[in-house]
Specification:
The longest helix has 53 residues, at 2-54. A 5-stranded antiparallel β-sheet has the order 1-2-3-4-5. It contains 3 helices and 5 strands; from the N terminus they run ααββββαβ. Helix content is 35%, strand content 18%. By secondary structure, it is of the alpha+beta class. The chain has one domain (2-183). Mean pLDDT is 77; it is low at 158-164.
């Protein structure tokens, strides 16, 4: 009888500990995913800066990786002719194409200007509240901004299988809830 009581007490203690630990693990995973998302948008920003200087498309210096001349920011991983660039890794390229999230995030980009001299990158949670809670944005300035995922503007990186962002955020939009979290 005594063994059964000790066994039941042990199970109860383990269940209480699990009830305390699981939410903390989820919070830790979300924090880790969000740190990875910031790193991802900064890696893309740095890759775009390198790409722009090197003229990989052969159309003249100053052009970011884009859909008009190639396959968009996925070209930071591999050019359409199969040449491996290595400016971003395969897992980030897969998050850009929507094949698989990287650390709980999908990533999208927009290239602006007729001369393809502007870009914006956005990382949005694959599953709001489970994989992450915030959206991260940067452009050629290198400043990273964040906002809670439920407050994202329509057309700019919403969270469900992230459709392409259509434009850069305006200064007015950035002043309404977006918080600068770092510079590249």
């Amino acid at each position: 009888m005594r063994t059964v009581v000790i066994g039941v007490a042990s199970v109860v203690v383990l269940l209480v500990l699990a009830a305390i630990a699981v939410p903390n693990l989820t919070g830790s995973r979300i924090a880790s995913n969000e740190t990875s998302a910031i790193a991802s948008v900064l890696i893309i920003q740095a890759g775009q800066a390198t790409f722009r200087k090197a003229d990989y498309y052969g159309v003249g210096e100053g052009v970011y990786a884009n859909e008009r001349d190639g396959n968009g920011i996925v070209d930071l991983y591999e050019l359409p002719d199969g040449k491996r660039m290595g400016l971003i890794d395969r897992s980030l390229a897969m998050a850009i194409t929507g094949e698989r999230p990287k650390a709980g995030y999908y990533v999208v980009a927009a290239i602006g200007g007729e001369a393809r001299t502007q870009f914006a990158v956005c990382a949005a949670p694959a599953s709001f509240g489970k994989s992450a809670r915030n959206v991260f944005y940067t452009d050629e300035s290198g400043t990273v901004y964040q906002i809670a995922a439920e407050w994202v503007y329509p057309g700019i990186c919403p969270g469900d299988r992230v459709p392409p962002i259509t434009r850069r955020l305006t200064e007015e939009q950035l002043s309404t809830g977006w918080i600068a979290v770092g510079d590249g």
